[in-house]
Every structure is written in C-alpha cells, then in structure tokens.
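INTERNAL AUDIT FORM
Audit reference: QA-55
Scope: verify that the stored structure record matches its stored sequence.
Auditor: D.O.
Record contents follow.
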Amino acid sequence: MTEPEAETDPEPDGGRDDRPQAHTIRLELADEPGELLSALEPIADEGGNLLSIFHERGHITPRGRIPVEVDLECPPSRFEGILERLRNEGINVVDADAERYGEHLTVLLVGDLVGTDISDTVTRVESSPAATVEDLSLSAPGGPAEQASARLRLATRAGAADEALGIVRTVAAEKGLHAIEPLTEVSR
C-alpha cells in the first residue's frame, strides 16, 4: 500500500500566495481613554488577526504620545488596506514592517513656528503616508514672539523623499516659514 500524496495549499488564481503572514505595526497614540481600542478596531475590521500588543504607557515619544507595537497576521493583500484604514482614522503609523519607512532626512524650519502652531505643522506633514516625523527639536530663544527654528527628522518610505519634502515645502510656504532641506545625515 502506498502513502497518499500530501496535499498542498493551492495558490489563489493569479499565482499569488495570499496565505496569512505576520506583520508588525508601530503606532503612536494619544494618552486618552479609548485610543488603543480605536487603533485596534480597523485592524480587525480589515481582516487582521491580532497576535500581540505591546503598549508602552510609561514611555512618551517626542510628540508626547504613547508608543504601541501591534503584531498581527493577515493575507498580504489586506495589509495595505489595514494601513490605509488606520491612517484614515487619524492614527499615526510610525512603522509598518521594517522596510516601510526605510529612509531618513532632516529638514530645518525657521520663522514664527509658535504663532503658526508647530503642532499643526507636524500633523500636516504626518497626514501623508510618505513620511512620519521621528524627532522634533524646537529652539525659540527669544520666546513665542520671536523667530524660532525647528529640526524635523523625517522617516520616509523608500523612494518617497521628494513627496515628503513637497509636503514640508507646501506647509512652510502656507505659514510663511523658511524650509532648509534636506540635511545630510552622517552615520557614526
């Protein structure tokens, strides 16, 4: 008697393997009741299966938010939909799988950063899926009424640096700020 051949999972039409795969998403959430639940609902709604959640409530990011790492499983065809849904819900996706934001650049903004609402500037830059603000350093030695400068370290998707710089330029022009970009980063 011969052994039956082992069955293999056929690939869906088109030859693409759409079996669930593990993914990691890093988020920054406001420290407010319900924020974690609001971030998890789009993942479930879009077909993601939660594997683990690491919620670093004791740590605060440079933007004053709580870092959260979510491990999930979903077919590759659904992963981009999950990311898009999170962004559409206003959730700050810092990193999605290691290669998502693989390039970095630094930009200086000079002008009335306090009066034009630096928080709004950061929010508008991060509204694009092309980049996220990894770090912000503000210097306003003369107080809120004087000129200030801010160094923004951006993480961008591979090949999306020009798009990210375009957003920074647009926001700076609308607010009457000077953008000095990009600064070359030196590895140590």
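Auditor finding: record pair retrieved intact. The chain has two domains: 21-96, 103-183.
Action required: none
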